[in-house]
What we know:
The complex is a heterodimer of chains A (about 350) and B (about 400).
Chain A: H1 16-25, H2 28-56, H3 58-64, E1 77-78, E2 83-84, H4 87-118, H5 121-136, H6 139-166, H7 187-212, H8 215-223, H9 228-239, H10 241-257, H11 260-265, H12 283-290, H13 297-329
Antiparallel strand pairs in A: 1-2
Helix pairs in contact in A: 2-13, 3-13, 4-7, 4-10, 4-12, 5-7, 6-7, 7-10, 8-9, 10-13, 12-13
Chain B: H1 2-21, E1 34-43, E2 46-55, E3 70-76, H2 81-94, E4 98-104, H3 107-115, E5 121-124, H4 130-136, E6 139-154, E7 163-165, H5 166-174, H6 183-188, E8 202-206, H7 211-223, H8 225-229, H9 240-243, E9 247-250, H10 252-262, E10 266-271, H11 272-277, E11 284-286, E12 292-293, H12 297-306, E13 331-339, H13 346-361, H14 363-371, E14 375-376, H15 379-390, E15 393-394, E16 397-398
Parallel strand pairs in B: 3-4, 3-5, 7-11, 8-9, 8-10
Antiparallel strand pairs in B: 1-2, 5-13, 6-10, 6-13, 6-14, 11-12, 15-16
Helix pairs in contact in B: 13-15
Amino acid sequence: MQPIQMRAVSLNTSSLSYKIRKQLRYGDKPWSGLLIGMAGLVVLLMFAIGLLIWNGSAEARLQAGLAFILPTLDASWNPITENYQAWPFIYGTLATSISALAIALPISLGIAVFLSELCPEWLRQPLGWMVELLAAIPSVIYGLWGIYIFLPQIVAPLGSLMSEVFGSLPALGLLFSGSIPESGQSRLAAALILSIMITPTIAAVTRDVLLAISSSQREAAFALGSTQWETIWQVLLPYGLSGILGAVILGLGRALGETMAVTMVIGNSIEGSASLLRPGYTMSSVIANEFAEAYNAMHTSALIYVSVILFILSVLINILARLMVWRVARQTPQEARA
Amino acid sequence: MHHSKTTVLALVLLASVLLAACAPAAQPVEIIKTVQVEVTKMVQGTPQVEVQVITATPEMKPTDLPAGSVTINGAGATFPLPVYTEWNYAFQYVDPAVVINYQGIGSGGGKKGIIDRTIDYAGSDSLLKDEEYEKGGDLQMLPILAGAVVPIYNIEGVTKTLTLDANTLAGIYSGAIKNWNDEAIQALNPELAAQLPDKAITAVHRSDGSGTTEIFTKFLAAANEAWKAAPGAGSAIEWPVDKAGNGIGGKGNQGVAVNVLNTKNSIGYVELSYALANKIAFAQMVNASGQPVKADADSLASAIADFSSAFTDKLTTDIVNGSGAGSWPIAGYTYIILHMNSMEDCLKAQKVVEYLKWALTDPAAAGRAADLGYTVLPSAVQEKVLAKLAEVTCNGQPVLTK
């Protein structure tokens, strides 16, 4: 073994570079201070945004008050007579997001279960990447594809079929009354496109949750004689429920805020009906469409009031969902928690 | 040693920053008027070289300022965007010292920008309100061009041009007229009556605030009493056809056009230049004097002439529903907004005013605008605008010296 060569290094303790390097040796304190500062900055930013939009909406809140938000059958949004009710937008956002989730959830669960349990090993990675690639497509491209291909060829015929089949049912019929416009622009179209957009998010997180469940659970289930389907449905999914709920929150959050794709396919029309087959309007669409050229200060204030409602709605849904996740997580062992 | 590496790196960075900062100033560009180009042509199988002389047109004029040294920023309406883009490009040849940028961000953005002084001039189709005049101080609207808004349609089986009038358009957009084969529409189109289908009309309107909507609704309010009372006129209104269940909103001219093209049995409204460029069928209108007119340069010129003495002291006027026999009823001026006395950079002020004067008086500029479907001002109006331009001052001195 070679002798280790040592060199004497002269240390000039009064030089500036030595003093600087000495301070940086206490690396942990300044570093953790920096990270805490960044985390605090994020929270501060959220409060700053909330404060800014609260102040900006003051004029509209004073004039319209709660009547702005309450459900009404005869809502109007009239910048000239300054008569504003945001219920159609609130309904549009909720209807499209919840429908999108209802469509996307079974599909995403199916994709995740397939990728983690049933998929042959050679297919797992490529298929996983392709699903995640869907999330990388910009939303304006979804909108364009929607207008030119998806809506006329798929949504419009589907809508006519749905109105024939479900339109005459007693309660459900309200959601499917009326006929879908020829171009296919409707809340249904927005819900379908949103469901395509949130599927990769929910599927990817759910797949990771299922893969993180240790194989001892599966082996124990098989040892007790359960089939693969029973294992998945009765052991794995309940085990990973808190993680799946976390994935659902992520998807719902994206659906609530999605603007561009929805604006292009929803028809941007305030109509009195609750039907999914008719054109509608969402909160993010009305802000995106009207903010740049708002008619006057009151119109701007009303639009900022709509953004306050969207902000509060998103925060509330997230808090609610997070509470659900915690409740479920208390019954779930560590590795499957979100 | 460790520190010498860091010191060397720091010295290299410092040296590169200093070199970049001390780079020589841009030299004035020599203006080349003619260029000789060798072109190889095949004549009966053998290549032959031909020398072609290409002359820069329009004629480039020399200037005593370095090329590109004055940058002027404008923003605003998208209505005249195609023309302004052409004019900005052509003006580089007229005065190479000036570079003009115009961004089509919408009339509202233009108005905000000129009030906040983030831009040098604004383009707008919608008029400034009183409080905006107060906030801006010394803003002046100058009419530059007039354009037409046309109703576009997509009806199954209809091959000839549709004719509409104010009452039918108001009826369609208020939801009163529901189907294409309604008697009112049939009465205006006797030879198409058999082709008009018994299908619901989908009325497409703008979902964003816009000058086009303002012109369209001002026309409906001027020509139809019921419309004036109910939705009224404005850049963003509440469309009764939405409540009736047959309305769709599209974002921008493009959104309206795409919706009309993709929806059978629909109608919409866009600027004429847009309908021409995209070859969309647009309707004739029966104007206030009862004549059916097509939207083109002549009918626009007639509309302008109907209101040539109707200018307010702010040099603004609506030109909808003109009474002339050949007037296109849905027309509007597009304006440039300037600060009259308080521009800070006097050289920029001079160049902006020279640009506007060139745009208003140069025949090539007028030709370019006409090619794109707009109409330039008649001489009476042009004189008023030029007189206003002569009143622009900077630091107390009038800006236009020539």
